[in-house]
Structures are given as C-alpha cells and as structure tokens.
Amino acid sequence: MNSYRPAPSSNLWITAFKIVLLIFALYFSAIVLSHVFSWVFTITFFLIRIAVSIIVGFFLLHFLLKLLFRFDLWNFIFASRFSR
C-alpha cells in the first residue's frame, strides 16, 4: 500500500503545468492543422455551392417550364424511374 501523499501546493502546480501544456498543444495543433482544414473547408464549401446551384437551377427551370409551357420537368425525369 502506497502511503505517499503529495502536498496540495505541488499538486496545484502540476495541474497548472498540465493546463498550460494543454493550451500550448492545442495552439500548436491549430497552427499545424489550419492549412489542412482550410483546404478541406474550401473544397467542401465549393462542392456544396455547386450542388446548391444545380438544385436551384433545376427548380427554376422546372417552374419556368411549368409556367410557360405547362411541362412538368420533375414528372418527366423521375416518374418513369419510380413508377411500376
């Protein structure tokens, strides 16, 4: 059985050192990983922007064709694939 009891002041300094070390480690990892995450976020937001523009363009084309020519683009594309 271990009877060693550290003094409260030494335990406090070790805890403070661990917190400072954690802050420095997080700062260093943020510096290193910022370049990686900036590229990941750039590519992700670019792909999301392309997908949203394609979807919005499809809906605008659908509504314009529906209003002008009474042609249902949604039904034309998806009805033959999902109907039996």
TrEMBL record:
It comes from the Bacteria. Keywords: Membrane, Transmembrane, Transmembrane helix. The chain crosses the membrane at residues 12-33, 39-65. This is Membrane protein.
